[in-house]
């Protein structure tokens, strides 16, 4: 297999790519008119209750565990691939402090965290830096035809930008993708101009470009006078401005694009951090608007994808180590999700609440699937061309394991994946292989490894390929 | 025989600049400063890079800072190497305005509504020791969302500002002509936005932006476009410094007067320089210590300085968390949002009144007085003070002394249903002694022991002492923290826990001048009131706030002089602020910027 140096560099820490499938320029594709496919990540935190996740039976004759109740009752059972037995091997042999930060760092990157002490706080360990490479969502987005937005990312809860509350990266050393955590900002960014006249949009684009050109010139001049960390700081800023400029050049959304309703939520309460930079516990009632925020994020993501503004999207339904009080679940809660997740196996109340909490997150995934199924596309629906990954930063919640991660796919990505089954992999199977399989399902069939290549020696997970 | 590479204990980081290195047990990775050596010498954690916010506190090469040697002799705080050392400003990283500075600056420049900044992505806080202020330069980068937010906010601010051109512009465009007035505006507003005069090239570039915006549109559209440019310029968003090196090869240079105006204004006001500062800077009158001190005096006399001082205290002591605290409602129905807010206000009032009163930091550990309103006095079991709002109150001096017994701080460093010797000890070590504590071992599931009737908190946390793995680190936190057992999870005085009498005796190890037994916090406060290590930590925290970064080894002389100055002034905090403004780190910059 021959890999060009340039492609290898781009894939470093991310994916190894066999040429000649893809050109150097995203968008200028070797393949003619690739099928339109979409990839969505939905993240929920704090591990699972294994007995409630496990399916009875494997393959197509599986009966999903109770956590999947809402997915089944919504009629999505045959769209699921429930994975069991996948481990995050990259978490097991690299640096990492707190188990939650470590887990969410490895989850989508499939890389070890960098050494360091940037994230030394938390529950333990000698600390770490940021994850070592690009995350699978961003990698896929960078390889697909260019859209108005590389990806559209939501975080339901407003959080500091630490390793605990970020999961998508464009590269190593903390190149985080910042999600929208304010519905109004998301709406204004995505949809404010939808429906404007072409001339109004052209005028705004022209004004913005003239200002950004000036800013780029100043940043370049400043960058040239700096070195080391200061230079990197300005360079990162420059990259962001160029990204905005690139967006200006992409065609405006089609006028047929349907705007969702404008959110009327006020900005969330300011965040308070403890001395370790972690969010401190808030008044539980501050979480009461969380279900509404989920609804808004789903609708905006589906609407934006229906307009083909982006082909990759993520919803962080809660940060890792989430302290959200899910007071709306049946019977209410007396503790936050994270506090429950620390209770021992013999605490039956906590176990039951944790199953309910995971069921609630499953219901959010079910609602996303339902939304996509209700949007016609071609001869079918949007969902036909989509694959959703539901993921978690831990395996068993109270043991904080990085093994036996609850991972589920929904949707076949245009018929590539064999849905409607539970698949139990041998213990020790790296989740990198699932990430690799998703790359291939998204049309990147020349990609042969993702994350740390050593975890992909056995290739994609053939059991889930149609 | 095969040769093996022998690796030392993880904790035994070899650091030439560290005073002492304690190899902790394998379960307790990291190192703790102090250990009976140089005060304040809490060294970097393993893996910390000196270029970022790794903390190496000033004792210099293990020599400075100490007040008394083992044989009772007195060592001067300023070592001989520092007496005639050339200026050494440490690191000078490029500083971005943080969100509150940005919002205050836009408001000062344009007088527009800035509430949109509430939707900006929040500033990141670094977890690294010494980086805990929101103005830490290493944490302030521009991400994709922030770049977008700057753009859309600039458009919104500009649109609002040009609604009232006569207030915005320094001229009447109908009299002097539109283009001539635009040129005046660019020179005038540009100087305020960039906090320096614009170059001829810059004036041309911004005039071109104005022309682009005006073409095919109105005059105001041109002004608006130039404004959008100013508000997204790196010269506005960052505090760009070039220094004034005498020779291009100089590694250290004084900052220019304009740069000094900016440093002073953001340090003491948290916002952009006013007209007086800019005028003094333009006359290059911010170079000598006297010139700088005169402006410090002027700025400190302005109400805006109170906001900056409050910000320092709030972030240093993590007071903002107090109004958000939850306590177990079944156990403590008297805990209400109103009381939580009162406790926050008490702490803030106490530190601020001390600072603006006699300014001596001694009260932080010696005072048995505080401030309370009627509700808070009742909460504490005091008679309500006369007069409305917060009034001076006196506690029983055998129960309360200063910060260590401040109700809100005690409540913040406790659990919802029980006290936490760990959190209280950790708070004192990290915030009041500037020590770096190692994190717990990896993959340890940490659960505070359940409250059980008939067992005191002290008994429930005893595992930390009996298990060697825990004890190696917890001796540092719990040994001090158990002394706080006379204060319940809300911060109120108590004499029993679960019906059993309180044992508030503790043992301190790993400090410079606090080691030994103590009984209760009043006793502990007496030790703190005498502690040079505690005073030096206060100086160090102010240093971090003033310079937007953690201290590095090169700051040793600056810190030694500040420590000495603080002793010479009998611990005068306002004097400290002035001395900070004329210290090497503040008057000079490293021409390597944020690198090392």
Write the layout of secondary structure elements.
The complex is a heterodimer of chains A (466) and B (596).
Chain A: H1 5-11, E1 15-17, E2 38-43, H2 50-53, H3 69-73, E3 80-87, H4 89-92, H5 99-107, H6 136-143, E4 152-155, E5 169-171, E6 175-176, H7 183-191, H8 198-224, H9 228-249, H10 290-306, E7 312-316, H11 337-341, H12 348-373, E8 376-377, E9 380-381, E10 386-391, E11 407-410, E12 421-430, H13 432-441, E13 447-450
Parallel strand pairs in A: 2-7, 2-10, 3-12, 4-7
Antiparallel strand pairs in A: 1-13, 3-11, 5-6, 8-9, 10-11
Helix pairs in contact in A: 7-10, 8-9, 10-12
Chain B: H1 80-83, E1 95-96, H2 99-110, H3 144-161, H4 165-168, H5 173-176, H6 178-194, H7 200-214, H8 219-232, H9 234-237, E2 238-239, E3 252-254, H10 257-268, H11 275-282, H12 289-300, H13 303-316, H14 337-356, H15 363-366, E4 369-372, H16 374-380, E5 391-394, H17 407-412, H18 421-432, H19 457-460, H20 463-466, H21 468-481, E6 496-497, E7 500-501, E8 505-508, E9 516-519, H22 520-530, H23 532-547, H24 556-568, H25 573-581, H26 584-587, E10 588-590
Antiparallel strand pairs in B: 1-2, 3-10, 4-5, 6-7, 8-9
Quick rundown:
The complex is a heterodimer of chains A (466) and B (596). By secondary structure, chain A is an alpha/beta fold.
Dominant shape of chain B: globular
How many separate helices of chain B?
26
Q: Summarize the amount of helix of chain A as a percent range.
A: 25-40%
Instruction: Sum up the overall morphology of chain A in one term.
Output: globular
Strand content of chain A: 5-15%
Q: N-to-C SSE series of chain A?
A: HEEHHEHHHEEEHHHHEHHEEEEEHE
Indicate the percent of residues in helices of chain B: 40-55%
Give the total of beta strands of chain A: 13
Poorly predicted ranges of chain A? 1-14, 18-33, 121-125, 273-278
Strands side by side in the biggest sheet of chain A: 4-7-2-10-11-3-12
Largest interface here, residues on each chain? Answer: A-B, 74 and 76 residues
Spatial ordering of strands, largest sheet of chain B: 1-2
Total of helices of chain A:
13
For the terminal residues of chain A, how far apart are their CA atoms?
25 Å
